Amino acid sequence: xxxxxxxxxxxxxxxxxxxxxxxxxxxxxxxxxxxxxxxxxxxxxxxxxxxxxxxxxxxxxxxxxxxxxxxxxxxxxxxxxxxxxxxxxxxxxxxxxxxxxxxxxxxxxxxxxxxxxxxxxxxx
Length: 124
Description:
The chain is an all-beta fold. The chain is built from no helices and 11 strands.
């Protein structure tokens, strides 16, 4: 079992930056991929970014490439999502998820554990 708890969401203005965090507990953190997804009202959950066990590989959705950075600190069992140049369309609940099989997939079905989410709201 893996427990995931997100934090750091909030209300910001367009162009601002925000960092959300996800603390993991349970199984050895460095043994699984981690991903970030988001879901806006009325929309399906969409992939944002994922990062490999060591942090050496990361993948991004085209909509956030160049603005968002995913990172992880295995000593702190935490994954981060640094979001810069935020836009109103980035408004959503942001979820972290654990991929125990190491697929590094963008599909939500490829993730085994999910956090409860943290709200990010970007005003124009």
